[in-house]
Structure formats: C-alpha cells, structure tokens
Specification:
Elements lengths: L4 E9 L6 H17 L3 E10 L6 H11 L3 E6 L5 H11 L4 E4 L11 H9 L4 E6 L7 H16 L8 E8 H7 L9 H4 L8 E5 L13 H15 L2 H30 L7 H34 L6 E5 L3
Parallel strand pairs: 1-2, 1-4, 2-3, 5-7
Antiparallel strand pairs: 3-8, 4-6, 5-6
Length: 316
C-alpha cells in the first residue's frame, strides 16, 4: 500500500446537534496531528445529514464554510443509518475511508492503528469492541443473542464489530456493485473481501445527547441482516413442517391403534386445543418470516434508490 496515503472519515448523523461540535474538533485535531507526523498525506471529514430535524445540518454547513477539508452530504429525508454510511463512503475521495459514529463512542484515536494495518497490506480493518461492560444489561443480552443468531444462520460477521471500520477506495468501489436497498454493511463487506485485520477498542460512554438508535431500529437492522444474507429461516420452516407432519402421522397411528386394538377412546380435549393453538402460532410465525422475505423482494423489485441526496457540499 502507498505510505503515507490520504484519509477520509465518514460520519453519518441524525439529530446530533449536541455532539457535533466536539466530534468535529476532536477529529480535526487528530487528523492534523497525523498529517504533521507523516502518517497521512491529507484528510477530509465527510458529514452525512440523514434527514435531521434539529440544527445538525446548520452546524455541518458552518464546518464546511470554515474548513476546506469538510464535505457535507445532505439527504432529502431520513433513509437510515446504513444508507447514510453508504452515501458517505461513495462521496469520500481519498485512499483510506473510515466510518465512525458521530458520538465518538468508538475511540477515534484507534484510527491511527487502522491506518497502520492498511500500510501492512490490509484493505479492510475492523474496529471491534473489547467487551460490552459499558452496556446496560438488556442491550448486552440482546446483542449477544443477535450475534448467536447470525452465527447460527451462517451469516459472515465479526463478533462485537459494528460500523467502525477502514476500507480501501478499491473496496468501496466494489461495494457500488451491490445495489440492494436493504443494506447491512457489517456482512456485505465480506462479499467483497475475505482478508481483514481487527483493531480492538474500549467503547466510551456517550458524553452528550442520547442515542437515536432505539430498540425498534436495532430489531429492524437485525431482521435486515438475517434476511439479506441467509435463506435458512425459510429452510427451518420447511424442516419444522416435515417434523410436525411426522409427529401428526405418529399421533394418528397411535390413536387408531388405541381405538381398534384396545377398544378405547383417547381422551384429552384440553391437549387437542393446546395442540391447535401451538400449530396456529407456528403458522403465524411462519407466515411472518415468509412475509419478511416477500416484502424484501417487493422493495427490491421496485428498484427505488436507497437514498436521495439534496445536495453535496464540496470545495473545489
């Protein structure tokens, strides 16, 4: 790899007016230090406004007007975190492209280690949390459950890696060949590159504001991640259907044997009702899973863009 190389930092934002000033100041300080130390040749900071409803965009515009190294991508509406990251990656012009959360709970100083890995020949460097001790109990449990499900369904991923990563410009160019609307970059990147390095960091507490990534968004991201990269849920439904069919045959044979050979009637209306309720629940669950896949096909078939940019602000 070229050493030193140029660096772009992508920051997706939705209603982050509280944290943006300190985030920008910290990243600018670090980037200038890396330039002066000869670790990078130049840098740019790419802010993506994901349809914010507060003063986030105005703050970004202020950064842009006072700093030649700032780029602003302004969405027409909120398209979601993964779309915002994608737009920022595609807007970035430098050789190394890092995506990082706007609240800097991902340690920005670790970007220097990512850059060092890039110079060692890795075009994909993943930021991985050392642990989840800082998380609340519920979030820690649900995160562990999600990663276990991802592993069970055979979806490529790295445990405790979110969206803090470095990608080469070539890998980002390859990602453009994947046009799907429901994007799950944590696994999509492995469709492009299998060789990667990891940089481990401690997740910091959020200094200001509150996270906009609520429980419903986490569930939506998990569903997108599973249904976009694995057909196993559909196969499990088929397998469950076969197992239930076999059990019903066994139950039928047992009932007939008791009735005709023992001259008795199998009692148990309560158990029959429970079985009916159980089967009804399984059917509804199966329809829900199938519906998720059908809705994804429906959205992809319409070929709507994953995001719409109102304007990109860039210094010539």
């Amino acid at each position: 790899m070229n050493c030193p190389a140029s660096l772009s930092i992508v920051i997706p934002c939705y209603d982050e007016e509280e944290v943006l000033p300190s985030t920008y100041a910290r990243l600018k300080e670090l980037c200038l230090g890396w330039v002066n130390a000869g670790k990078i040749t130049e840098y740019e900071i790419v802010f993506v406004n994901d349809g914010s409803t507060d003063k986030t965009f105005d703050i970004m515009r202020g950064f842009f007007e006072s700093d030649q190294n700032v780029v602003v991508v302004d969405f027409r509406k909120n398209f979601g975190f993964q779309s915002a990251i994608s737009a920022g990656l595609y807007a970035a012009k430098n050789e190394m492209i890092v995506s990082i959360d706007s609240d800097l709970q991902n340690d920005p100083e670790k970007i220097a280690e990512m850059v060092a890995k890039y110079y060692e020949g890795y075009e994909m460097v993943l930021g991985v949390r050392k642990d989840r001790a800082a998380d609340k109990f519920f979030k820690r449990i649900t995160a562990q459950l999600f990663y276990k499900l991802v592993s069970f369904f055979g979806i490529p991923s790295v445990y405790n890696h979110a969206d803090f990563r470095l990608l080469s410009r070539d890998i980002v160019a390859e990602l453009k060949n994947f046009p799907e609307r429901a994007r799950y970059l944590r696994s999509l990147i492995f469709s492009v590159e299998s060789k990667y390095a990891c940089v481990y960091y401690e997740c910091r507490a959020r200094a200001l504001g509150r996270s906009k990534f609520n429980f419903s968004k986490m569930v939506s991201l998990a569903i997108d991640g599973i249904t976009s990269f694995s057909a196993m849920p559909i196969r499990l439904i088929s397998l469950l259907g076969i197992v239930m069919f076999l059990f019903s045959i066994i139950g039928l044979v047992y009932t007939l044997c008791v009735r005709f050979f023992l001259q008795a009637v199998v009692p148990g209306w309560a158990s029959v009702l429970l079985i009916i309720l159980f089967l009804g629940g399984i059917q509804n669950l199966s329809l829900g899973v199938i519906g998720e896949y059908l809705s994804k096909l429906y959205l992809e078939a319409k070929q709507r863009p994953p995001y719409i940019i109102r304007r990109e602000y860039r210094h010539k």
